[in-house]
Design a protein that fits this description.
Four Helix Bundle (Hemerythrin (Met), subunit A); 2 domains; 8 helices; binds zinc ion
Length: 203
């Protein structure tokens, strides 16, 4: 695990989990010893040793923080507010250019769309402007939803697997609600699958 903030807590959790696992193992070993006398062959077959890598991954996933801390949330909040401001400004200039189109007064500095505007393309240009505007307002709604999730401290939690969406992805796509893998493939990643299995098992 990279040395990020929160890795200290994660390490602590891992130690705790390892201790608990060791205790559980000891308990199982004791139990196995007592029943080994009766049916040793069957028991060995039923409980093949788990792969060390699997155990390691499971412990790492179990130890992962499930929410972003206040400092990270503050960072994301500022980022989202910045995006929102930017988008609102773009919307304002689009509205201006829409007005220009309506009045027929094309102001080149407020609209790129007027550059190749000729007679007969007005309707098309207007359509394009409306499309950009509606995309912009949809994006603002999504940003507002993201801000609401920050307030409830659910921001950055993958809707699919419950693990944290990596910081880098959220910085690139602040409205993201799932890991990139799930978004792209419709399937949770390996870590996600482990997390889902653990959640199902009530861990
Ligand atoms: Zn996920």
């Amino acid at each position: 695990m990279p040395a990020k903030k929160g890795s200290k807590t994660a390490a602590k959790n891992t130690v705790q989990i390892m201790k608990e696992k060791a205790a559980a193992r000891a308990k199982r070993a004791k139990k196995a010893k007592s029943s080994a006398k009766k049916t040793p062959a069957v028991r060995a077959e039923k409980n093949p040793p788990r792969k060390a890598a699997d155990t390691k991954l499971a412990a790492a996933v179990a130890a992962e923080p499930r929410v972003y801390g206040p400092e990270k949330l503050k960072h994301f909040k500022e980022l989202i507010q910045g995006k929102k401001k930017e988008t609102m400004e773009e919307l304002d200039s689009l509205k201006e250019s829409m007005m220009d189109v309506t009045t027929g007064e094309y102001v080149s500095e407020s609209s790129n769309y007027s550059l190749h505007m000729e007679q007969g393309t007005d309707a098309m240009e207007r359509e394009k402007t409306f499309l950009f505007a509606s995309r912009g307002s949809k994006f603002i709604n999504q940003l507002d939803d993201a801000l609401a999730r920050i307030e409830t401290r659910t921001y950055g939690v993958c809707k699919e697997c419950g693990l944290l969406v990596p910081k880098e992805r959220l910085e690139a796509v602040p409205t993201a609600q799932t890991c990139a893998e799930y978004k792209n493939t419709g399937m949770p990643c390996e870590r996600g699958r482990v997390a889902l299995a653990q959640r199902k098992a009530g861990k």
